[in-house]
Specification:
Layout (H helix, E strand, L loop, with lengths): L1 H12 L4 E5 L28 E8 L2 E9 L4 E8 L12 E2 L1 H4 L9 E2 L17 H4 L5 E4 L8 H7 L5 E4 L1 H19 L9 E8 L4 E2 L3 E2 L3 E8 L5 E8 L7 E3 L1 H6 L19 H15 L9 H170 L2 H5 L1
Helix pairs in contact: 5-7
Length: 475
């Protein structure tokens, strides 16, 4: 929240705030930044999922286009046009929040210090200033600020336009590209607004702090899309600061990714003015050898160059002092706004806390009163119901006791009245049982007597058979 407020304050105080828009996949090319490509057709062949297209803007106007590699955390190329260079440079380095956090509501490039903590995964997909601190490398611009006028120049100071370069190589790259563009390319293009420039880097496996790729070489591709048009490629090797090799765009494309096509239309190798191209190559050769480009008034040019250098040496301390004063002023303004923000935050926080506490107390009091008022009829009804239920219980107990008391004499009378009836009814059953018992006794005696007589008969017969001889029976 704090960073968002600071960001809005900065935007309101400094309306010329840089804006870099990540181009959506559903948009054609680089959207409004297609104007920086011949025929508004960007280079082909850069199709990796970690390639992000950025339309770099300033004061709500497109200034140049960048293809950024979130894998290598450096730009693969920046496309721009030559504008009249500004006299003074003011560095204000910015980052692109949407590269690390696509869901973030910040749609513009902002200073890195203003969004720390408010952007998720900051630095996961792009380089940060901390990646360069103490590394021995500095932030080298692919689209050099020295080739741009004021608004365009301010837009170049973004980390999505920077690659790690040694201080000497960065100085050499900017010096050579500046001279080539101003002294060789611009003078030989009949329409200055039709001169399209692509400055790029080829990533290597060497990483700064294990994160940001150090390019193995830098390259520049130029296209003059006009009558007697031409195209040209230049390459500077990292291990040779003084190298600046020229080659055709087709040869340059072979050093990049497979299937890459940088330019279309009249910038193709088959549609070039060889005379113009030879003139450009000659100018580049003179720059490479350290000669002054031009056909006349060389001494005057050298003299004016010496005067400019001397004036630059004299003015440098004052320029640096002015830069320091501007920096101190900007930091002081930022500190004042930050202090005011803290004061407002503390005061507003205290007031809001008091209001919230008062509101919570009122709500709790009203809630307690409401609960008491609501519970009164409920409690009264519950008491009435309990009284009624108690009365019913008393009536039930009285009836139950009365029933039990009345049951004692009634039961006695009923049992006493039923005794004769049960006694008379039991006589036939008793007589029947007695007759059955007597008959059974006589039957048992008869059976026992018969069994005894049969036993005696069987014993006598056996004795007779045993002791009477068989012979006498034969006689």
């Amino acid at each position: 929240m704090k960073t968002s407020v600071v960001f809005l304050l900065c935007v309101s105080l400094f309306p010329g705030f840089s804006r870099g828009r990540v181009v959506g996949e559903d948009e054609t090319g680089f959207a409004e930044c297609n104007v920086f490509f011949p025929g508004q057709v960007p280079p082909e062949g850069f199709t990796e999922p970690f390639h992000v297209k950025i339309c770099q803007q300033y004061n709500k106007e497109p200034r140049f286009a960048t293809l950024y590699s979130t894998k290598d955390k450096i730009p693969l190329y920046s496309a721009f046009k030559y504008t009249k260079p500004a006299q003074n440079e003011e560095e204000s380095w910015l980052v692109e929040p949407q590269i690390d956090d696509p869901e973030n509501d910040l749609r513009e490039m902002v200073p890195e210090v203003d969004i720390i903590g408010s952007v998720a995964n900051l630095g996961a997909n792009q380089a940060l200033t901390s990646d360069y601190v103490g590394s021995g490398y500095e932030r080298g611009l692919l689209n050099p600020s020295l080739l741009n006028k004021e608004d365009f120049q301010m837009a170049t100071y973004t980390l999505t336009n920077a690659v790690p370069l040694s201080p000497s190589l960065s100085k050499s790259w900017h010096r050579d590209i500046g001279r080539v563009v101003e002294e060789a390319l611009v003078p030989h293009c009949s329409k200055k607004d039709r001169l399209y420039l692509l400055a790029g880097a080829i990533p290597s496996s060497v990483r700064v702090k294990g994160k940001v790729s150090v390019p193995e070489s830098l390259w520049l591709a130029a296209c003059c899309d006009a009558s007697e048009g031409w195209s040209l490629g230049l390459v500077k090797k990292i291990n040779d600061e003084n190298s600046l090799g020229d080659l055709t765009v087709g040869e340059l494309e072979k050093q990049l990714l497979a299937g890459v096509r940088l330019f279309k239309g009249s910038c193709g190798d088959d549609n070039q003015s060889q005379g113009k191209r030879e003139a450009v190559l000659q100018s580049v050769s003179q720059i490479r050898s350290g000669e002054q480009v031009g056909t006349g008034d060389n001494q005057e040019a050298k003299g004016s160059g010496l005067v400019r250098r001397l004036a630059g040496i004299i003015a440098t301390p004052f320029v640096k002092l002015l830069e320091l004063l501007i920096y101190l002023f900007v930091e002081l303004v930022k500190f004042v706004f930050y202090f005011l923000w803290l004061v407002i935050k503390r005061v507003a926080g205290t007031v809001l806390d008091g209001v919230c506490s008062l509101w919570n107390g009122m709500v709790s009091y009203l809630k307690a009163i409401s609960m008491v008022l609501i519970s009164i009829p409920y409690d009264v009804g519950r008491v009435i119901i309990n009284i009624f239920l108690g009365f019913l219980q008393i009536v039930q107990d009285v009836v139950s006791l009365t029933y039990r008391i009345l049951c004692i004499p009634v039961g006695f009378v009923l049992h006493l009245a039923a005794f004769p009836y049960h006694s008379i009814c039991a006589i036939p059953s008793v007589l029947k049982d007695m007759a059955t018992g007597i008959g059974g006794t006589f039957s048992l005696v008869i059976d026992a007597t018969a069994a005894l007589l049969h036993g005696f008969y069987y014993l006598a017969g056996h004795i007779v058979k045993r002791f009477i001889p068989k012979g006498s029976s034969d006689d």
